[in-house]
């Protein structure tokens, strides 16, 4: 097992290195001054220029430049934003928690609703129920997320007026950031309006989270259903029936754990698409997360913001997908069999 | 004299006809196939049947409702936008951009992915893992971020969308084909073919290729629907097709200003995207279930 | 009174070629405490019959029967949940492929413990450890010595024989009255086969479990079973006490099966042609009408296009118009078992 973990860690490091290499090459291709693309300083003084040259070793070979670039980026120096003149790393740490909050809530919605519905769809004998569920999931899978977001905000936000459609919380509430997650911060806050602030934050997150949850929800339903149908035909399920176990016990104890394995695998594969969707959702609902920050960065040609944002998001995705793979291996005794065979 | 059949004819259908009959047994998939065929025709000949040119502005018919509304007219079947452009004509012209572009991207990505994936899948050891893992790093950059990166280097425009979505899609194809080839290579019938004296090229062409075909087909349908959604999302974010272009995602973003007064300028292109992606997914779903008895 | 008494069981399958009678008018009588062998080629519907008795039908099955009596109760009249209760307590089944009959994602021990009966007299907090102890006892009884190691393993870490012993332990833990063993030794080594069969016959003798033993090997069955039923292509050909059936087969198919067993004792038979029936077993979509052996039968005549009914004669049952004995056949009165 330790050997396996080390191999996964190696994979993470190697992939990250390739990512940095790609970013290094792209940075030199940006249609602006190289120093500006690296640091975000519009018109550096000669002193700053000398500092930049020594930091990034601009007069050495490409290889040295790459290692200098790597060193700067890994030490947290992402340059400063050209528009706000703040260090990019600070802006990044300010917007990341909001994105995580949205992603986690959406993922939870998808899993909590998707798994039971997938199981129900697989167990239902009625053709009509099955077709309805499949039709809904296929539509949800095909719907363009920006259009869905707009329609939802038009319906629930504007015409019905039930839910707020932009931002993370009403600006009147002044919440001191502790964890960065507003839902937690509002609860932790000791102001007298803490409860109403929490409810306000909850109302704000509903529409974006539901919009974002549609894609993973449909995927979870479809994969769960397919896996359950395949598993219910297996001999060990028949054997469990022959033992006289109740159907609900068979489903919960034997079928569901086995069905969750492919679901987990597909969640890992879906991360990229999920991140793309999250960016669009953040733009539509003016959610102060990485996506909206990045998109405004590209509108303003803020190259350091683009670099920093892409590096952060890609690193997180690499890390999460490897983490999911490790969990998948830990949960699935069968994949451990392959490990033995490989060693 | 007619031949007398003593036994029921024991006709064993070829794999292709079996897939076809399984596919046509599913009415939804078949409907999807018809829709995709229509879309293909529209992408090719749409501009010919469009009543107006996409940029033709009718100052007398600004924000005209679709024809089924009381205020709508039949001349502008799906209504007009804030500049008096006919939405129906723009949709027809946009099919060429959105759907045609998605097809072109997927075909390019499929070719590239097929070449790299099958070479890396057939090879063993370090070379194979370098080739396949090199692209894993690219795979971890979401398609939208990749597009932002490309746009940052080259500036926005429909041509850059081609590169952006293409670069984001290719690693997926490489990975899928690499894995399929690699898995197939472990099976015993490949060893049997090798013992019969087949060289690598023959093994790839006659033994492995027919068995990874289904993976490629399924991956292609997935790729097309993802490409359409990506192109539209880029158009919506103003990073792809630019303002006057009738690309469907760009049309949605152009209609945003009038969302409250004229919701159809947003709804209709959105429904067009939804329907085309739905049709492709129906076909993909049907193909997957038609192919699955062979796979298992 | 027989433990299990089935009359004219017909199972129809919905296939892409239309509805097919996979089992046609099968009758089977099983007495308490006997080992009953069910012999037939693969595809002759033995597993279908076993699953129908147990009550785990597939989704495309249609089952009809004149009666399916289990110890005086008609199984056909019972609801699925009643059948499920019966499955847990009175009937059990072990399957062809023991490794895939165990859940791959859960340790074997958990599955054994799950199947152990709960001792309702103990307080609930002691029941868990009691079940665990019982599981270990049963594993000992089926001949597994390292119970701890087996219980903490996963199914794929064990050998076929070990898995089958675990399955037997699970099956007999609730002290069923009938154990259906569907090719329990398929693709196992000879030594493991012998172990499993010895275990089954020991269970039969000590616990008085009736066993329905399904196999395609007439030789092995004749060694372990009290009575035999021969099936071909979804129809019962012959049934009777093992020694009589072997010594004096009435049905052409039974005789053909016996002829297929190579005879090593007579050196003169060396290098002579092995006797087999011409042709091969029909596919499901091309079943002949009447007696399904008809097209291959050496004795077949015009009459064979009608399905022969099961004749009863001195504890022997056979379904043939032209059996290998000359006494006339009496139509079997349905009331007599």
TrEMBL record, chain C:
<keyword id="KW-0547">Nucleotide-binding</keyword>
<dbReference type="GO" id="GO:0005886">
    <property type="term" value="C:plasma membrane"/>
</dbReference>
<dbReference type="InterPro" id="IPR027417">
    <property type="entry name" value="P-loop_NTPase"/>
</dbReference>
<dbReference type="InterPro" id="IPR003439">
    <property type="entry name" value="ABC_transporter-like_ATP-bd"/>
</dbReference>
<dbReference type="InterPro" id="IPR013563">
    <property type="entry name" value="Oligopep_ABC_C"/>
</dbReference>
<keyword id="KW-0067">ATP-binding</keyword>
<feature type="domain" description="ABC transporter">
    <location>
        <begin position="4"/>
        <end position="258"/>
    </location>
</feature>
<dbReference type="Pfam" id="PF00005">
    <property type="entry name" value="ABC_tran"/>
</dbReference>
<dbReference type="GO" id="GO:0005524">
    <property type="term" value="F:ATP binding"/>
</dbReference>
<keyword id="KW-0997">Cell inner membrane</keyword>
<dbReference type="GO" id="GO:0016887">
    <property type="term" value="F:ATP hydrolysis activity"/>
</dbReference>
<comment type="similarity">
    <text>Belongs to the ABC transporter superfamily.</text>
</comment>
<keyword id="KW-1003">Cell membrane</keyword>
<dbReference type="Pfam" id="PF08352">
    <property type="entry name" value="oligo_HPY"/>
</dbReference>
<protein>
    <submittedName>
        <fullName>ATP-binding cassette domain-containing protein</fullName>
    </submittedName>
</protein>
<dbReference type="InterPro" id="IPR050388">
    <property type="entry name" value="ABC_Ni/Peptide_Import"/>
</dbReference>
<keyword id="KW-0813">Transport</keyword>
<dbReference type="GO" id="GO:0015833">
    <property type="term" value="P:peptide transport"/>
</dbReference>
<keyword id="KW-0472">Membrane</keyword>
């Amino acid at each position: 097992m330790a050997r396996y973990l080390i191999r996964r860690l190696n994979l993470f490091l190697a992939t990250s290195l390739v990512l940095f290499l790609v970013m290094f090459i792209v940075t030199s291709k940006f249609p602006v001054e190289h120093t500006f693309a690296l640091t975000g300083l519009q018109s550096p003084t000669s002193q700053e220029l000398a500092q930049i040259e020594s930091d990034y070793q601009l007069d050495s070979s490409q290889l040295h430049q790459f290692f200098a670039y790597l060193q700067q980026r890994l030490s947290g120096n992402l340059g400063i934003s050209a528009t706000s003149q703040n260090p990019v790393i600070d802006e990044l740490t300010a917007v990341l928690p909001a994105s995580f909050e949205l992603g986690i809530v959406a993922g939870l919605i998808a899993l909590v609703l998707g798994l039971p519905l997938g199981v129900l769809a697989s167990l239902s004998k009625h053709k009509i129920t099955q077709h309805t569920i499949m039709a809904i999931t296929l539509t949800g899978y095909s719907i363009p997320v920006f259009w869905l977001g707009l329609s939802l905000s038009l319906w629930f936000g504007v015409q019905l007026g039930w839910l707020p459609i932009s931002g993370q919380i009403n600006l009147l509430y002044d919440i001191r950031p502790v964890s960065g997650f507003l839902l937690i911060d509002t609860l932790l806050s000791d102001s007298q309006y803490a409860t109403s602030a929490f409810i306000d934050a909850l109302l704000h997150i509903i529409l974006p989270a539901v919009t974002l949850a549609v894609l993973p929800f449909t995927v979870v339903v479809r994969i769960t259903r397919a896996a359950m149908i395949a598993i219910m035909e297996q001999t060990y399920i028949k054997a469990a029936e022959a033992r006289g176990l109740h159907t609900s016990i068979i489903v919960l104890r034997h079928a569901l754990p086995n069905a969750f394995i492919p679901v987990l695998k597909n969640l890992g594969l879906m991360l990229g698409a999920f991140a793309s969707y999250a960016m669009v959702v953040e733009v539509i609902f003016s959610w102060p997360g990485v996506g909206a920050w990045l998109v405004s960065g590209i509108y303003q040609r803020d190259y350091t913001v683009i670099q920093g944002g892409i590096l952060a998001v890609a690193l997180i995705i690499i890390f999460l997908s490897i983490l999911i793979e490790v969990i998948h291996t830990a949960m699935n005794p069968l994949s451990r069999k392959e490990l033995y065979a490989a060693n | 004299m007619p031949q007398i059949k003593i036994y029921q004819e024991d006709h064993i259908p070829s794999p292709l006809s079996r897939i076809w009959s399984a596919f046509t047994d599913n009415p939804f998939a078949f409907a999807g196939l018809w829709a995709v065929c229509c879309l293909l025709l529209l992408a090719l000949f749409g501009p010919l049947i469009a009543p107006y040119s996409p940029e033709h502005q009718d100052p007398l018919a600004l924000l005209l409702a679709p024809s089924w509304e009381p205020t709508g007219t039949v001349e502008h079947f799906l209504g007009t936008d804030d500049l008096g452009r006919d939405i129906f004509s723009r949709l027809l012209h946009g099919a060429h951009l959105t759907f045609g572009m998605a097809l072109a991207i997927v075909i390019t990505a499929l070719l590239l992915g097929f070449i790299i994936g099958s070479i890396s899948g057939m090879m063993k050891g370090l070379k194979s893992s370098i080739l396949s893992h090199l692209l894993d790093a690219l795979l971890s950059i979401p398609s939208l971020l990749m597009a932002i990166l490309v746009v940052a280097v080259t500036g926005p425009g429909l041509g850059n969308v081609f590169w952006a979505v293409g670069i984001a899609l290719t690693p997926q194809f490489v990975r899928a084909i690499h894995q399929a080839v690699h898995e197939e290579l472990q099976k015993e019938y490949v060893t049997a073919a090798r013992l019969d004296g087949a060289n690598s090229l023959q093994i790839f062409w006659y033994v492995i290729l027919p068995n990874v075909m289904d993976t490629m087909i399924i991956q292609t349908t997935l790729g097309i629907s993802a490409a359409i959604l990506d192109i539209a999302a880029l158009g919506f974010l103003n990073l792809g097709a630019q303002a006057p272009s009738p690309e469907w995602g760009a049309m949605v973003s152009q209609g945003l200003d009038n969302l409250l007064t004229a919701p159809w300028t947003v709804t209709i292109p959105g429904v067009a995207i939804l329907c085309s992606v739905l049709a492709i997914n129906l076909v993909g779903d049907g193909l997957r279930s038609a192919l699955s008895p062979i796979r298992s | 009174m027989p433990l299990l008494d089935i009359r004219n069981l017909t199972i129809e399958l919905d296939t892409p070629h239309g509805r097919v009678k996979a089992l046609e008018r099968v009758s089977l009588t099983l007495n308490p405490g006997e080992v009953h062998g069910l012999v037939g080629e693969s595809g002759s519907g033995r597993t279908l019959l076993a699953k129908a008795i147990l009550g785990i039908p597939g989704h495309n099955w249609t089952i009809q029967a004149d009666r399916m009596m289990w110890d005086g109760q008609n199984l056909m009249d019972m609801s699925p949940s009643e059948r499920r209760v019966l499955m847990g307590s009175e009937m059990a089944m072990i399957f062809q492929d023991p490794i895939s009959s165990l859940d791959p994602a859960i340790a074997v021990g958990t599955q054994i413990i799950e199947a152990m009966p709960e001792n309702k007299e103990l307080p609930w907090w002691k029941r868990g450890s009691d079940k665990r102890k019982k599981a270990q006892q049963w594993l000992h009884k089926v001949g597994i010595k390292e119970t701890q190691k087996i219980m903490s393993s996963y199914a794929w870490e064990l050998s076929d024989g070990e898995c089958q012993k675990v399955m037997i332990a699970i099956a007999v833990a609730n002290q069923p009255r009938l154990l259906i063993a569907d090719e329990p030794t398929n693709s196992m080594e000879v030594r493991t086969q012998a172990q499993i069969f010895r275990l089954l016959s020991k269970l039969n003798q000590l616990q008085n479990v009736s066993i329905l033993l399904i196999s395609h090997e007439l030789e092995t069955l004749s060694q372990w079973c009290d009575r035999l039923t021969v099936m071909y292509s979804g129809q019962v050909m012959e049934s009777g006490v093992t020694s009589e059936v072997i010594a004096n087969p009435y049905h052409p198919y039974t005789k053909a099966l016996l002829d297929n067993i190579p005879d090593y004792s007579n050196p003169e038979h060396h290098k002579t042609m092995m006797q087999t029936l011409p042709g091969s077993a029909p596919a499901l979509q091309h079943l002949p009408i009447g007696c399904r052996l008809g097209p291959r039968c050496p004795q077949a005549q015009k009459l064979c296009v009608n399905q022969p009914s099961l004749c009863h004669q001195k504890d022997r049952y056979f379904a043939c118009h032209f059996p290998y004995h000359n006494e006339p056949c009496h139509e079997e009165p349905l009331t007599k078992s």
